[in-house]
């Protein structure tokens, strides 16, 4: 078993604390009393630590999810599918952005969507109306999608008909950061109405993103959006991420994003 | 708010370990939590009390080790601490996207009897 990442199961754990062996009680019937040369402290140690042992595990608490995510990744690779995990706070425009992306790619690339929400299938209905194949996951009280849910939803999706799978995660900038779904790219959205300091407030998510998209730029002036500050904050936390600025509503900036998707899909196909 | 499910997994692993070792009680559970793990220590502690109830870990104590985030600078071949979300090497001022530590969410060890 690999001790660092915890792959393998608990069969061969490392047992530390060997020194704390099980103590033994004995009566003083063997002809000596308590005197300095023969301390019976082992008796007390034994009582205090009777059977107490430390077991070293060093296992990731996410190992189950990570393992399933790798399985998903292998499965998606075999299907030559580009998979995007789209994350943002609620209301930053994920569904509209996905709908416009799918509509504009129609005829070039076939896009399917797995949507996660706590409740309702409103988002799925919006996408379905636009003729996009969609599977809705309602998570109940769970604040993120995990690899197991994606694996099950993928079966329903019919991936053979698709080139690009977009996973619309639950609107939440905290928890989805920890859950690998098997995606090729993690895409984080930041709308101009949310404030320029979002990346600074949620560094784990922004740091883990491969792509950052500033949405609703048609509202920038009305929202008093400070573009330079937002870009500086984004570059500070997610400097390695590709940044796009666009409006799903007016179409401004969409071309660069669509070109990027086409290029990424071609790269997946070559693998 | 996924601290409860994280904690459930930790307690599940601890119970599995205790059973495999023939123990009947879990006394201490030690976790390593990176500062970029996205998990809030206070929420973990709260979840711990709830999750342990009616398990072998009832009454156990929780020890959390915080792991500060650190990046690797390939140019300087050295690690540097990721402070204030600034992943820029303090020596050469080149940014680095290679996080070496800080996303840990691990069960380190358990004390059982």
Compact description:
The complex is a heterodimer of chains A (271) and B (113). Chain A is of the alpha/beta class and 271 residues long.
Structural class of chain B: alpha+beta
Helix content of chain A: 25-40%
Per the principal axes of the C-alpha atoms, what is the gross shape of chain A?
Answer: globular
In terms of quaternary structure, the protein is heterodimer
Which pair of protein chains has the largest interface, and what are the residue counts? A-B, 39 and 36 residues
Number of strands of chain A: 9
> Can you list the strand order of the major beta sheet of chain A?
5-4-6-3-7-8-9
Mean pLDDT of chain B: 92
What would the principal axes of the Cα set say about the shape of chain B? elongated
Describe this structure in words.
The complex is a heterodimer of chains A (271) and B (113). Chain A is 36% helix and 18% strand. With 271 residues, chain A is α/β, with parallel strands linked by helices. Chain A has a seven-stranded parallel sheet, sandwiched between helices. In chain A, strands 1-2 form a two-stranded antiparallel sheet. In chain A, helix 2 (63-78) packs parallel to helix 5 (147-157). The longest helix of chain A is centred in the last third of the chain and has 17 residues, at 254-270. Residues 1-48 of chain A have low confidence and may be disordered. Chain B has helices spanning 3-20, 41-52, and strands at residues 26-34, 61-67, 70-73, 78-81, 99-101, 105-112. In chain B, the strands form two sheets. Chain B has a three-stranded mixed sheet with strand order 2-1-6, covered by helices on one side. Chain B has a three-stranded antiparallel sheet with strand order 4-3-5, with no helix packed on it. In chain B, strand 1 (26-34), helix 2 and strand 2 form a beta-alpha-beta unit. In chain B, helix 1 (3-20) packs across helix 2 (41-52). Chain B is elongated and about 55 Å long. The mean pLDDT of chain B is 92. Chains A and B meet through strand 2 and helix 7 of A and helix 1 and strand 6 of B. Strand 2 (53-60) of chain A pairs antiparallel with strand 6 of chain B, so a sheet runs across the interface.
